[in-house]
Structure formats: structure tokens, C-alpha cells
Amino acid sequence: MAVPLLTRDDEGESRPTSLVIPEGWRATQIYGAVDKVLALPAGTTKKSLAKAELDLPDDAEGNPEGYLFPATYPLGENPTPEKLLSAMVDKADKRFTGAPVAAGAQRNALNVYQAVTIASIVQAEAAIEEDMGKVARVIFNRLERGMPLQMDSTINYALGRSTLKTTAQDTKIDSPYNSYQRMGLPPTPIASPGDEAMSAAINPTPGDWLYFVTVKPGDTRFTADYAEHQRNVAEFDRLRQSASARAEAAK
Fold first, then answer.
1. Using an 8 Å Cβ cutoff, are 87 and 54 in contact?
2. What pLDDT, in 10s, does the model give residues 106-138?
3. I want to staple 33 with a disulfide (CB 3.0 to 4.6 A). Which of 2, 4, 24, 99 is the partner?
């Protein structure tokens, strides 16, 4: 969750002094956090986009998804949604448009917006930082082979949820973010990536992997062999069902 840092005013009342935006948050979550920390009616921050005059890349077409950089933002005097959103986008611009990211994107035949999109998927999919480079490599390998990405995180984004299990029905939804049905990258980033995910997106770990699944915490298995991947998925399903049965028995 977003963490407001508090101080006390002259009357002893607590008031927030800054807002922490975590890595991997979607724009909708960030809008809600800004509304809450500024004590504004729900939906106010999203409505403020029209007058915020955010310095977004042309490819974004006015959508700040992926460019609301995760960091700590001081509220300062007379904070407004426009000021906070502008600060987030300005920080993203500084991180993403510098020479290292631009050169890294070009090295991988990407523009910066595409690199941010890949980084957002890496942020959502990698269970731990050490796996980010491998997840990025899976994305590149699939793109290069003309395979659909088949990333559950893009389905979750389309459905506005977070879950570890995507059903066959989910993969049939009509959405440009359905990476089971659509080829290539989704039309926008799906979350706000941090520095590590961005680094992974432009410096993917060398490897031939095409599949991965986190069987259990700390155990993500990458492979180029579909049959091996299916065995890993089956083990994930068994462990998940076993955990569910234990939870039911404990009630």
C-alpha cells in the first residue's frame, strides 16, 4: 500500500508530509492513493489529468500509465493532484530518457516507450529482483520468434485485478491487453516499473528460455522446453490445491 509519512501541525493534528508510491502500482492505484492522502473525493485525481499538462512521450497519447514513477514524493505547501502527478512524470522522464536507457532500448531495437512497457511486465511478473533479467529475456525470445507473450499480468491488467491463476476463459477476453490472443507488446505499460525492472528490460539475461512459472516462493523455473514447463505448471497446481485444502481444513 502507499505509505503517507506523517507530521503534527501546530494544533497537534497528524497530517501527511509525503507519499510513497510502491513499484509495480498501476495508475488507478496511484490515483486512489493521491485522492486519499489529499483527502479528496474518489476520482478527483483521475479527473485532474486533463489539466495536469503532463510531459508524456507522444506514444503515450496522454495516458501516464508506466510514467508515474515509484518513489517518495513530498507534499509541500498546498499540494494538488496536478503537482504530484507532474512530479511523478518528471521523475520518470529523468530516469527513462537519459543516455543509458535510450542506448539500451536502441541496442534491443526498441524505442523508450516500448522498453518501459517491457519493464512494466517484468515488474509485474518477476517474483524477485534476481529473476527480472530472465523474465525480460523470455519476453524478447517470444517476440523474436513471433510467439504471443502469454503473460498473465496483462490479463490481470485488462480485468483490473491481481491473481496467480489465469483461467482458459480469461485468455479469451476481447482486449488489446490479452497477450494470449494478441501478438507483440500491449499498447501501453501495465504498471509503474522501478529502476531494477527498467535495467532488466534493456539488459536481459542471456538465455534461450521461452517459459517460466513460480512454483512456490523463491522457486521460479525457466525453460525452453514446453514439456518441462508443463510439468512445472502441474507442480504449481498441485501445491496450490494442497495449500487450498489445508486452508479449508483449518477453518
1. no
2. 999 999 999 999 999 999 999 999 999 999 999
3. 2
